[in-house]
Design a protein that fits this description.
2 helices; elongated; mainly beta; 367 residues
Length: 367
């Protein structure tokens, strides 16, 4: 090939590749507010999402936005910092939150941000969901509700999700699309039912949820609250979270899959961890100052290993479950280390310090 023709061909290829890269990387970005005036500007998040050309990114200026939001297309919602201000707050409209969907079990839901069966990722970061003013309403109040949708929830704060004891900070629900959701580095507090829930109404797992590095704390007078809940139809990996104050800190229910590892649970009003699923091992957690039980077993098969349990009346409550997979835990300053053991379960190897009673078969029959 003549040199000049080769140079022309190379130039065409470079120009074509450059155009393709530019087009592939050019995200459509809209602004809510007036802090980034070089982007198309909208007065509300809902208006930006409903624009004729759907956005790839919605940058939200600091301020308070009174709206309920439905997301139906892939997008990133991102709160931005300007000067000394770095808080984007979404609050209920003046008339309060209204029911905008229902969960898999038919319970009416008023979601502040509803991610509705989106094909493609929806990412939410640096946003506060505040549901103040909806206590007593007969609907389930949810801060962020992912319904059969994938994405990431990062550095999100939820607070005051309270609705007649039906308030949840973050609820992720699977479906036929088998979505995957990452919840990380977020602050969930002042709810009156649950902090984070992962669930699908299906016989097998239709959701993968990763819950890591979050702070979950209840600060209500509700008599029953759960910090992080692993339910059936979901595979939920729960690691390195800090959970405090709930009736139950972390609970796996029958049919759930996943793992509970490396979390810190403190001052739980009843139990630190409820192990209710055979397929959810409980490993390397730190449980301090639980009012009743450090760990309660509802399973005879789940691995309970390498946990540290300090200062609780009952460190591990077997609830008469013959689970021989409880070993290598460290128990200190407990009334009873292994409580409500079934008769004959004697091959458990754990470490005990400052414990009044190491094992008790009370209510489960004689030794």
């Amino acid at each position: 090939m003549p040199r000049i023709s080769f140079v022309k061909l190379l130039s065409v290829l470079v120009l074509t590749l450059g155009a393709w890269l530019a087009s592939a990387s050019a995200a459509i970005t809209y602004e809510v507010g007036t802090c980034k005036p070089h982007f198309p500007t909208y007065s509300s998040i809902s208006a930006a999402l409903a624009a004729t050309t759907p956005p790839d990114v919605v940058m939200i200026c600091p301020g308070t936005y009174t709206e309920q939001i439905e997301i139906t297309l892939p997008v990133t919602l991102e709160g931005v910092s300007v000067g000394d201000s770095a808080q984007v707050i979404i609050e209920p409209p003046s008339g309060g939150l209204i029911t905008n969907t229902s969960d898999d079990f038919g319970v009416p839901v008023a979601a502040q941000v509803w991610v509705n069966n989106v094909t493609g990722p929806v990412n939410i970061t640096d946003i506060t969901l505040d549901a103040t003013g909806n206590a007593g309403t007969n609907q389930e109040i949810i801060g962020v509700y992912y319904q059969n949708s994938s994405g990431t929830i990062n550095r999100v704060a939820t607070r005051n999700q309270q609705g007649n004891t039906l308030g949840t900070g973050i609820w992720v629900q699977g479906g036929a699309a088998n979505p995957s959701v990452l919840i990380e580095n977020s602050s969930i507090h002042d709810f009156d039912f649950a902090g984070i829930v992962a669930v699908t109404d299906a016989g097998s797992s239709q959701l993968t949820a990763t819950v890591k590095g979050n702070n979950v704390k209840v600060s209500t007078t509700s008599s029953f609250t759960e910090g992080i809940v692993l339910r059936s139809g979901a595979t939920t990996i729960v690691s390195n979270n800090f959970v405090s104050g709930e009736t139950f800190g972390i609970a796996s229910e029958l049919g759930a899959a996943g793992s509970i590892s490396g979390n810190t649970l403190i001052d739980n009003n009843q139990d630190g961890i409820v192990a209710g699923a055979d397929a959810v091992p409980v490993t390397s957690n730190k449980i301090l100052n639980a009012v009743n039980n450090g760990i309660v077993l509802r399973t005879s098969a789940a691995l309970i290993q390498g946990n540290s349990i300090l200062n609780t009346p009952f460190a591990i409550n077997f609830d008469c479950q013959a689970n021989a997979n409880v070993h290598s835990n460290t128990i200190s300053d407990a009334g009873t280390a292994l409580a409500f053991l079934p008769p004959g379960l004697t091959t458990l190897s754990n470490s005990y310090f400052n414990v009044s009673t190491i094992r008790s078969t009370s209510l489960c029959g004689p030794d």
